[in-house]
Amino acid sequence: MQATSTVHSDTISPKARMVVAGAREIFLAHGFSAATTDMIQRAAGVSKSTVYAYYPTKEKLFEAVVEAECEAAIQAVHSVAMHLNDLRDVLSTLARAYMTIFLSPSGLALFRAIIGEAPRFPQLARHFYLVGPSSMNNLVAQHIERSTRIGELDVSSVGLETAASIFTNLVRSEAQMQCLTHPGSVPSAAQQDQWINTAVVTFLRAFGTSNFNAGKA
C-alpha cells in the first residue's frame, strides 16, 4: 500500500518547521504521552498559539514529526542506490543505508515512542507503518522489479511486494531487536556488515536466478 505524505520540509512555512523541530526534540526524548504542548512550544521557541495554529492536536503534530522523519529517511535511502547496477551492490547499499537510519538514536527513539503508544493510539502506529516501513518496501520493490525484468531475480512465488517486505525484514529484524533490547549499546561496523551480508545472501539464495548466479561465477 502506497502512503502519501502530507509534510514536505521544502513547502511548509518556517514557523511550522520550527514547531515540528521542537516537537521532534520533545517526542524523541519523552515519548508521546509525556510530551506536553508547553514543552514543545518552549523547545520550538514559539508561542503556544503558534503551535495550535499549525497543529490543532498533539496527534497531528506527532504525525507531522513521523512524516518528516520518514520522508527524510526514504529520500536518503533512495539517493544512495540510484546509480548502481550490480544487484548485490544495490541490495547491500540499500541495506546499509536503511540500517544506518533505523539503528540511529533518533530512529530507535521514534520506534520506541510509536510502539509504546500503539495500543492507545493505533491510528498513529498505522500511520507510521504506511509512511515508514511500507514506503521503504515500495522503494526496495522498485529495485527488485528492475532485476526481475532482466532475469536476475524470480519473485513469482511470492510476488514483488512480499519479496520487498522479506528483504527489509531480513535487514531490520535481528539488528533492530538487538539494539532495542540493549539500550546504549552500539553495534560495531563488523557486526553491521555481518547482518547486512546475511540478509543479502539469504535473499539472493531464495530468489536469485541461474542468470544472476552465472554472472557471478
UniProtKB/TrEMBL annotation:
Keywords: DNA-binding. It comes from Pseudomonas reinekei. Pfam families: TetR_C_7, TetR_N. This is DNA-binding transcriptional regulator, AcrR family. Residues 13-73 form the HTH tetR-type domain. Residues 36-55 bind DNA. GO terms for molecular function: DNA-binding transcription factor activity; transcription cis-regulatory region binding. It comes from the Bacteria. InterPro entries: Homeodomain-like_sf (IPR009057), HTH-type_TetR-like_transc_reg (IPR050109), HTH_TetR (IPR001647), Tet_transcr_reg_TetR-rel_C_sf (IPR036271), TetR_C_Proteobacteria (IPR039536).
